[in-house]
Amino acid sequence: MRDVPVTGRAPAPDLARGAALLLIAVANAHTFVTHRGIGVRAYPLDPTGVDAWLAAAQLTLVDGRAYPLFALLFGYGIAGLARRAARDGAGPDQVLALVRRRGGALFAVGAAHAVLLWHGDFVAAYGLIAVVLAPVLVRGSTAVLVLTGVAATTLLALLYAPVALTRSDAASASPSLVAPDVLSAAVERFGEWLFGNLLISALGLLGAAVAGVLVARAGWLDAPARHRRALRRVAVAGIGAGVVGGLPLGLVAAGVWVPSEPVALVVGVLHAVTGYAAGAGYAAAAALVVARGSATRPVAGALVALGRRSLSGYLAQSVVFVGLFPAWTLGLGAGLPLGAATLCGAGVWLLTVVAAVVSRQRGRRGPAEVLLRRLTYGRAPAAAR
């Protein structure tokens, strides 16, 4: 069994990954803001002015939408990995073993990321899904995948129902960010990740991951030019649903609307469920860009380069955020305006785009991708070009 060379990859998923990293950087940046109270989905409590508008916009378009997009692409990648292994002559048990090795490698990288940098890691959750549910992702029928996705999404929606009611004067939703020193922050972060984030993230990402497997089987991202009509429908319906379902919670976060408690619970469910639709819509939009032949243009090409080094780009975001924001580093997150955090997130993403383009020009993979492939295959990966 072998890993696929970079030049053999379909561009649409990588274009979507590169763009998704911008959404993830913006969505994560606000979680490092401290000493402003805790509002909806860890946004600052009672924002005003530009911050209020940004909170509304991000909850409508970004927050709860970026991670489903990435999870869909993860499921697509797992299906492709299994398909290539079978094509190379691997038996069913060997394919499952390969998927579980990839999952174990992802879990190890994600656990290190969570313990050393940021408790909100989602890479380990992907690894857990791949290890535990490899038979479902690889061999599951369409009916089994649909039922699994619906069950996971329903449970996630129930867990996120109270999100519109979140209000607290605490310094941060993550005690590790306001810990006074490196050691105490690491202890707090480990607990936050293991007991608070890992299982919830795995559950929250599972529905989109099985959707990604179904997308891979349909071939929509591999040959988008053949599926333009379906992709247009998914893009319009998915993004539209994401906007309609995300705006109410955005208005709550901005302080424009204070719903009654029963209505607030419905708002939380609506935001969570339509995030999956938005993620699928964003993926379809990226595929349509490729179908138009735009993937070779400079901007799209740069996003593809980053998408092919998405794990390195994701980890780099945490390195910069942790260096700037927590109390045990520079402490710049204390009282930081949401607008400044958003600009920082976008700026960090832009730096990773530049780094990815330079890496592509030099024919190199991302360092995290090299490590992941070594852990999966036990040897050096194929050359980048």
Explain this structure.
The radius of gyration is 20 Å and the shape is globular. The two termini are 19 Å apart. By secondary structure, the chain is mainly alpha-helical. It contains 15 helices and no strands. Helix 2 packs antiparallel against helix 10, helix 5 packs across helix 9 and helix 10 (228-253) runs antiparallel to helix 11. The protein has one domain (9-377). 71% of the residues lie in helices and 0% in strands.
The number of helical segments is 15
What separation lies between the terminal Cα atoms?
19 Å
Question: Can you give the mean pLDDT?
Answer: 93
Cα Rg: 20 Å
The sequence of SSEs as H and E is HHHHHHHHHHHHHHH
Q: What number of structural domains do the residues give?
A: 1
Name the beta content range: under 5%
In terms of structural class, how would the helical and strand content be classed?
mainly alpha
Q: Residue share in helices?
A: over 70%
- What's the story with the biggest beta sheet? none
Number of strands: 0
Poorly predicted runs of 5 or more residues: none
Question: What is the topology?
Answer:
Blueprint: H1 11-29, H2 49-61, H3 66-87, H4 92-116, H5 123-132, H6 134-139, H7 142-160, H8 175-178, H9 182-218, H10 228-253, H11 261-291, H12 298-307, H13 310-324, H14 338-361, H15 367-377
Summarize it.
By secondary structure, this protein is an all-alpha fold.
